Amino acid sequence: MEDNKGNLNRLGKEITKTQVILIVALTIFLSAGGMFININSNNKAFNENLQNTSALISRLYSFTKNFSQDQLCQYMDAVVSDLSDVDIFSIVDKSNRRIYHTNHSLINTQYDGTHPDFSRFSADYFTENSNGPSGPQRRTYSAFYDDAGNYQGFIMTIRLKTSMQSVTIRTVLLFVIVTFAAILFELAICATISKKIKKEFLQFTEDFEGTRFLVDSMRANNHDFTNKLHVILGLIQIGEYEKAQNYIQNISIIQRETVTFIMHNIQNSSLAALLIGKNARASECNVKFSLKEGSCYNSNDISIPSEALVTISGNLIDNALDAMNHSNNQTKELIVGVFTKPGEMLLFVQDSGPGIAPGFMEKIFDNGFSTKGTGRGVGLYHTRQLVQSLGGSISVESQIGQGACFTVKLRK
Questions:
Q1: What is the pTM of this model?
Q2: Which of 38, 81, 332, 355 is the most exposed place for a label (fewest CB within 10 A)?
Q3: Which residues pair with 407 in a beta bridge?
């Protein structure tokens, strides 16, 4: 059972690890794809904004032909102040003189940069990467003409690469933050779902364990029933019909009452199935099995894993049956008590076996200690280890020739 539990834990960890890897990888992949698309969209937007701005300024400039230099400067300064997508703006006439520049110290100076060749393009504007005094930049050139259609110069709108990179960096940071938040959110959802699945899976495992113990109890009952049939057959063959009838009535009543009491008072299918099976096993060993009056396990009082309940109870009952098998006492009786109250559980197993010698009382829980030969002495050791792992305690009382009583106390 411990191996199965370990396998389930390893399986759960592998599933969780795979889920985390898939979630993180998928989120990063989608985020990287979205970021790439967004950056490309930003680059296209930069070009469109520069071209639209250049076209707008070209139309506005057509209304300033009669402006003086100071009036043109004031007008263009007002226009540029509202253009957040343009870092540098310049108007250059056909003689390469700067009529206007956002850096006023360059106005009326000679433009010695790349002169746009509009003949290479179908439109009167184009955009390209270039280098200028302010560093790498994205430029849009737009030609302007007089009323007769004669070329008069060009307008240059510039977005510095540093500005474009800052937008790209902000975009990347935004995607990183969103990706990180998405991963945390998805992991939280994954943890919640995994916890729910684990809970349901453990419940299924406990139900399966309960079914397994129920099958074992049915097998033991079948064996016990076969023995009783042999007794009934023998009584009939010797002509003791009345004794056979009484025998049938007695075992039917006892069996029904015991099973009914266990199923009604033990609200854990695995533990109930175990007790029913051990009842049949005790009957085979000619041991009177009884559940202490008032015994009741309420699952709402305390939550203990079914496999732990079965292991602890099963080991103690098997130990008691084994002790009575080596006893010469004519009366063999096994009493089991299970009691719960909010946050606590008390379990005791009392037998009428030979008892435990005083010198052995401190050793019975040691690993490998046994008075019945080699290769034994691990049941009580593992039982104490399991009880202590659940934060509980186990003790024993015994009298030579009278039997022993093991008591387990658990708290949650």
A1: 0.45
A2: 81
A3: 348, 395
